[in-house]
Amino acid sequence: MTTKINFNGDIRDNGQISVFDHGFLFGDSVYEVICTRHNNPCFMAQHLRRLRKSAAEISLTIPWNDERFEREIHHTLKAANNAESSIRIIVTRGEGEIDIDPTSCGTPNVLIFVIPTRIYPPEDYQNGIHIAVVRIKRNSAEALNPAIKTGNYLNNVLAKIEANKLNAKDALMLNSSGHLTECTTSNFFFVHEDRVKTASPDCGILSGITREILMQLARENGILVEEGHWLADELEKAEEAFVSGTLRKVMPVTRLNGKAVGDGKPGPITRRLMQLYESALEKAIN
């Protein structure tokens, strides 16, 4: 298994970036993560579209078009030659003065990491994981909008530290109004009365590519989906819960704040969505 780094079109075994790059200094960057199936990228067009949307939100000009990204991604995958990979694209503001004003920065830097796919323990899917609601609140959209996928992740890092102290696999964050938002690197869903419920985007979430595909699959297969503003107390009624993300895919949650969710086993709707998403990945190969 091999990691390869594509730095502005040059494929390397390891990489170095200037200490004056504003992505390093201030988290002034955007990124995306793409999974593979049979070592081919899945949902690449959707990820590149969101990368450009994030960049536009922070007034960052991406120097490559989609065709260049696709070409460089495939070249880097070929160089790594893994059975399966995860692809992380980062576009930084570029090098500039040690000052938060970005006008001193020159050309943005583009990095593509191709990394052997992280394999989560099979028991996480068979038995589910434990997550906990934490005190750290999700960033306000009026401060740093969570809908922008930037390299500034300290909010999530602090939440994960708190979850670790609670012996939970991940943290579930609330917004300043006490409504459910999302986990540190995945979206959150729970099931009540045969309805899949998840936070509305205006609660302050990053609407994941996997989240959007799951909601579409659910509706196409007769599963009711509801986006809303849910207080943490609503979780007492949860019969099932799960998280979704590019690398985690669909992962059951069977314990929440140390208590069993439903009967403490992955539920039928969760298992159905896991199957539907696996089928969607097979069809998504670019």
Tell me about this structure.
Helices cover 29% and strands 28% of the residues. The chain has two domains: 113 residues, D-amino Acid Aminotransferase, Chain A, domain 1, CATH 3.30.470.10; 162 residues, Alpha-Beta Barrel (D-amino Acid Aminotransferase, Chain A, domain 2), CATH 3.20.10. It is α+β, with helices and mostly antiparallel strands and 286 residues long. The strands form two sheets. Strands 7, 8, 9, 10, 11, 12, 13, 14 and 15 form a nine-stranded mixed β-sheet that branches. A hairpin with a 2-residue loop joins strand 3 and strand 4.
Give short descriptive properties of this protein.
8 helices, globular, 9-stranded mixed sheet, D-amino Acid Aminotransferase, Chain A, domain 2, 15 strands, D-amino Acid Aminotransferase, Chain A, domain 1, 6-stranded antiparallel sheet, 286 residues, alpha+beta
Protein topology:
Blueprint: E1 4-7, E2 10-12, H1 22-26, E3 29-37, E4 40-41, H2 44-57, H3 66-80, E5 85-92, E6 109-116, H4 122-127, E7 129-133, H5 141-144, H6 154-165, E8 170-174, E9 180-183, E10 187-192, E11 195-199, H7 209-220, E12 224-228, E13 240-245, E14 249-256, E15 259-260, H8 268-283
Parallel strand pairs: 7-8, 7-14, 11-12
Antiparallel strand pairs: 1-2, 1-6, 3-4, 3-5, 5-6, 8-9, 10-11, 10-13, 13-14, 14-15
Helix pairs in contact: 7-8
